[in-house]
Amino acid sequence: MAYRVGVIGGGQLARMMIAPAVELGVEIRVLAEQEGMSATLAATSVGDYRDAETVLAFARDVDVITFDHEHVPQDVLAALVEAGVTVHPGPAALAVAQDKLVMRQRMAELGMPQPEWAAVTGPDELAAFLAENGGRAVVKTPRGGYDGKGVRVVSDAHGADDWFAALAEDANGGALLVEELVDFTRELAQQVARTPSGQIATYPVVETEQRDGVCAEVLAPAPSASARLTDVAASVGAAVAEGLGVTGMLAVELFETSDERILINELAMRPHNSGHWTQDGAVTSQFEQHLRAVLDLPLGQATPLQPWTVMVNILGGPAEGGITERFENAMAQHPAAKIHTYGKDPRPGRKVGHVNVTGVELEDVAYEARAAASLFLD
Amino acid sequence: MAYRVGVIGGGQLARMMIAPAVELGVEIRVLAEQEGMSATLAATSVGDYRDAETVLAFARDVDVITFDHEHVPQDVLAALVEAGVTVHPGPAALAVAQDKLVMRQRMAELGMPQPEWAAVTGPDELAAFLAENGGRAVVKTPRGGYDGKGVRVVSDAHGADDWFAALAEDANGGALLVEELVDFTRELAQQVARTPSGQIATYPVVETEQRDGVCAEVLAPAPSASARLTDVAASVGAAVAEGLGVTGMLAVELFETSDERILINELAMRPHNSGHWTQDGAVTSQFEQHLRAVLDLPLGQATPLQPWTVMVNILGGPAEGGITERFENAMAQHPAAKIHTYGKDPRPGRKVGHVNVTGVELEDVAYEARAAASLFLD
């Protein structure tokens, strides 16, 4: 009897679980939002993940339900659990990923390093936070933000009035998250896998470069990372996974400060863009690891295959024609580039694919990955 | 517009093309012999590959037709070509892979190193060959043999009488292939990819260990291979690919003699068991390379990621229960093992999966791969 994993959401993260599922011999089924999405090859169902009946019907024939995204509502998750469906990550962990205010609260309870923060319900409270934190801060909507959406730097107490107004009408809300504007030297990300039985595997911490709030590039492992930094990042990742009871892959996005402290920026409880390098650069990719973790199978080795891997996102894609029309040129010029595409139509700023390159010299590897990815843009 | 590849045959080779197809963004369709085969996830059609109409219908919506095996009859291939379908490898190349007598004849014409051989039509001719070659020889049926089937060592002129009798009734036949019993020190295999445009990529030559005529283990690259041996093997592989006009992956199985000569044993014009190590051990796997080659896209780098990769086949599988029931144990004990399964029911001698391990010390890598694979047997 093969293991059967049901993935809610038909985006590129679900798509990238297909390859390791086929190789291992794990049956993978996907509940896609619509026809023709990235994970279309394994899309056995199409339907609304906010509808409990749809999700329950999808879950009937699988051993475990997992996710391409964190947006499945808590009432749907509760209905699954009540019906006896195994769900990883579980509703309690996902609740933390679904609400940035809850996340900050839980990180504080776990004693994790993080920026100064507060829940603010109006301009007065925002003004007080600004006054205490140098006059500038980051305001975030607790829910629904991703890839830089729902995030804004403000230096004025009225800089988030539109969001306060919108939230006042929101049954869930009332408060915004405000955070200290961290003076970071770079951004890092720590990938961790955790099984329901409690086994944990940590990948080496990586450096991520964001552009316009979107992950653009990842250097793995993080260059010039001291053994101490690597250990601290892995410990923080493991402590968060354990503290929140995360099952499957967890990505902890981090700020590194000039005095080599790390502060938690965001969490993602699924395979994450900052871990795509593992597809070609690690013994076990984050997608295989996620499948093993949610099936409560022993985890694979999380070590790199080569000294360096660089991942560069293909953001937007060509103005004319599809990604694959550039294959000829990109493959001819960059035979070492591993090209991954998501079956999505190009659109400005959209993640439509990525390129991984592995090798011995970071400078060469980074050059190759950037050059190859650039051939898919205009 | 995505590239679309149609694969005839739904076995494990077609299955293993799915992962790179999904990652690249190549649409893959499979014409499977029956329901529930290894490549079932991409099996868009089920039907008889010996029926031209079935195959033509399947070919209608793809850019190129390629194969999981070499058994598609020449009249079906001719019908495809006549209908304007792109077929790689093409009928002329496949004709050589389909008939071992034709293969020996063509290798002789190309001046390739090979064992002494002859076409024999009866016991008298066999007796003459035996007399000239030390009294023992290998007799092979020109068609239909694989994994040691249709191969027999004889030392008696009447040792192949049953095959002569069977062939007499075969419209295609009449002759058997008889070959010198080569006193080899080991068996090697050379993987080569060639595109319709003529680009060639050669992998490092590997050592293969056969058991009962079936590939059991591959050490990549071949241990203690001199630079000369590596060069000669690559040159022979490239010359065969070019000489026969092979498109896609070609595997050249070789004997190495005690004086470090190599002799061609068999050819396979498709991804081959001796190249499975590339899935986890090379920059470009043979399955991705095959897709690139048949689409006439530039080839990927064929270099190893780690000093050593060892592939061990899972032959037969457990006597009770399926392969996946052993995951728990195998993954716990061997976190570095890459497990590949074919979705096939265990049966004595059947190839049901394989394990790849990569690393720096050959002894450790081989131990790990063998130990992990053995956990799937009784």
UniProtKB/TrEMBL annotation, chains A, B:
Its EC number(s): 6.3.4.18
Key words, A-Z: ATP-binding, Ligase, Nucleotide-binding, Purine biosynthesis
Residues forming coiled coils: none
SUPFAM superfamilies the UniProt entry points to: Glutathione synthetase ATP-binding domain-like (SSF56059), PreATP-grasp domain (SSF52440), Rudiment single hybrid motif (SSF51246)
Pathway assigned in UniProt: Purine metabolism; IMP biosynthesis via de novo pathway; 5-amino-1-(5-phospho-D-ribosyl)imidazole-4-carboxylate from 5-amino-1-(5-phospho-D-ribosyl)imidazole (N5-CAIR route): step 1/2
Reaction equations catalysed: 5-amino-1-(5-phospho-beta-D-ribosyl)imidazole + hydrogencarbonate + ATP = 5-carboxyamino-1-(5-phospho-D-ribosyl)imidazole + ADP + phosphate + 2 H(+)
Amino-acid positions noted as binding ATP in the UniProt annotation, renumbered to this chain: 100, 140, 179-182, 187, 265-266
Keyword Repeat attributed: no
Keyword Cell membrane among record annotations: no
Domain ATP-grasp: 104-295
Function: Catalyzes the ATP-dependent conversion of 5-aminoimidazole ribonucleotide (AIR) and HCO(3)(-) to N5-carboxyaminoimidazole ribonucleotide (N5-CAIR).
Subunit structure: Homodimer.
Protein family: Belongs to the PurK/PurT family.
Protein name per the record: N5-carboxyaminoimidazole ribonucleotide synthase
Protein species of origin: Microbacterium sediminicola
Lineage of source species: Bacteria, Bacillati, Actinomycetota, Actinomycetes, Micrococcales
Gene expressing this chain: purK
